[in-house]
Structures are given as structure tokens and as C-alpha cells.
């Protein structure tokens, strides 16, 4: 005769996917509307992520295994920042001469200095800032907009303006604009700060234009470039800015810092590609993904 189970034999457990729910109003398991269900799931994921981060900050830091240590290096051939295992990076020959652009050498403003690779952590902050600047200038060039760079910046960078017949031109005669930088109807119709055009994500650009007047555009530009011109502490440059890892005109090549997201994340609404790219680069370093409601 088979075993007869009674209600007292049943063991009730809380569903793990609802571990962070604060009440029945956050139970998404029976909701049919996809948008509402996804919003509740995101809320619980954000809460769980913050709890993990809080626990990690209180736990004693453990040294990472030597095999997992990576060093940021400059790929001269591809003009990008790249991550290499520390053991491999240490075998890279140190060049006999500085690997910095000639425009920054031997002038009163930029005296000659000796730079060796791999760089120390202090140098890497400046390298990250410089790489963002390089990416920004690349996108400006693709948009035939180098003439919009402020005069004090163009003098420091030795920029020679390219003649143009139309100050609002977005592309040159022999240089098509990449689809990711193609101006949106809003960009063409509404006067806005021209630096917004270099953002390689159409929704992000439109968000910045639509929110004009509600935020300090110069403040955001400073954070975007990591304080390269105005300057702020190196530790803040790493936390507040962006990182350009590869192709400047593709959002997949960019990473947004946690500090930038905390301050400007509200302008990333609808910018799923920005967060996907950011978390892809974070995953390569073994870091937790950043979760925000977009």
C-alpha cells in the first residue's frame, strides 16, 4: 500500500527568485504582463546586487590568484588599451624612446619625459583619459567636426581645422559617417552642445538633447573626459569617467564607470547597448555586472 502524505508532511520553502521581495506586491511569478514582470525582476536584481556589494565591502579583501592578475597595456599597433596577463605583460620589451605622440614632447607645455610600458597605476589613469580623448577626436573627425573643438584645446592638441563649406556638416566628401554616429532627426532639428554628437549611441544622444537645461552640460563633459582638461584627483578620474577600449564609433567599445552611472545613469534610459557593453568589459576583469533600471 502506498504512503499517504498529509499536509503536515509538506515542506514549504520560499522561492529563491523572490528572496529579495519585500512583500506580495513584488511577487512577479504570477504576472502576465511582460513589462510589469520585467520591471519587478529588475528591481529584485538591483537589490540583490547592492546587497552582494555591501557584503563584499565588509569582507576582508583576499589576494587574487597570480594567474588571474591582469595589467592594462597600450597596444601601439591598434591604438587601443588592452588587458594582458601580468606575467605576459612583464615580458614586453621596454622601448628605448617614449611611446607618446610627438605633439606632446619637447615643448614648454609638455616637456620631454621618459615613459616605459607596462605603466604604473598612476600613469594608467592618465592613459585611460588620453584614450577617451583620442576616441572623442576620432569621432569628431568622422563627423567632420574638428572645427568645433575650443581654440584652447585645439592649440594644445595641434589640431589643424579642415576647411568645410557648412558648419553643420556631419560628414566629409570621402568619409562616410558610421551608422552609430548618424545624426538623429532630433539632432538635426534642435540646437545642442556639439560634443553630444560624439556619443556612439542614438538614444543616449537624444536623451542628452531632450534633457537640456536640467543638467550642467560642462559638468557631464568633464566627467566624460575624466577631467583631462580641468583636472580632478586620479582616483576620481577612474570612478567618474568613461573608458574607450576599442572602436570609438561603436558603443561595444566603451565602458561606463560606476561613478558615471550613479551621477548620469538617468540619461541612459533606453540605452540597453551601453550597459551590455559595460558589463561585457567588466566580466573580462571578473567584476560583477552593473544593474540599473533602464
Automatic annotation (TrEMBL):
InterPro entries: DUF3425. It comes from the Eukaryota. It holds the Pfam family DUF3425. This is Uncharacterized protein.
